[in-house]
Amino acid sequence: MADDNVVYIGNKPVMNYVLAVTTQLNSANEVTIKARGQAISRAVDTAEIVRNRFMPEVKVKSIEIGTETITREDGSTINVSSMEITLAK
Amino acid sequence: MADDNVVYIGNKPVMNYVLAVTTQLNSANEVTIKARGQAISRAVDTAEIVRNRFMPEVKVKSIEIGTETITREDGSTINVSSMEITLAK
Prior knowledge:
Two copies of one chain form a homodimer. Chain A is α+β, with helices and mostly antiparallel strands. Chain A has helices spanning 14-27, 40-54; strands at residues 6-8, 30-36, 59-71, 77-88. Chain A has a four-stranded mixed beta sheet, with helices on one face. In chain A, α1 (14-27) packs across α2. Chain A starts with 5 loop residues before the first strand and ends with a strand.
């Protein structure tokens, strides 16, 4: 399943996501870190901590940015920035 | 001067930076958006608003992430994530 290699960044402490990414990189060759809105800076923190502190052999394979349209409960829509960082061994 | 084509993202409203980037892109072929820490998500917002709303012909040329070590007034150091997004016509 493709989603096995994706880590979604939310509002938890950054080390939770660092642990999730390093764990997945032990069983897969690459992991994609996805985030939206304010969590984007935490996604960059996660990728940098994994590379600098735990797995120096891991490289940034690609970084993509985009915009997602989210529908709120009242039916209105807002645009939110998104980011995907793919790390590979 | 190389810095002419760089926009540093801070804590102002995102439209200030959108205006700065679009202005520079009218006189230069590419602009680099730089941000650190929490401002990283605003940098992505800036790039996406410029591309989607004002200058659809502009492409994301490159995105880089890194870590900078900052020395605080008391002499201690902290690591902060950084990001550079280069937009080009």
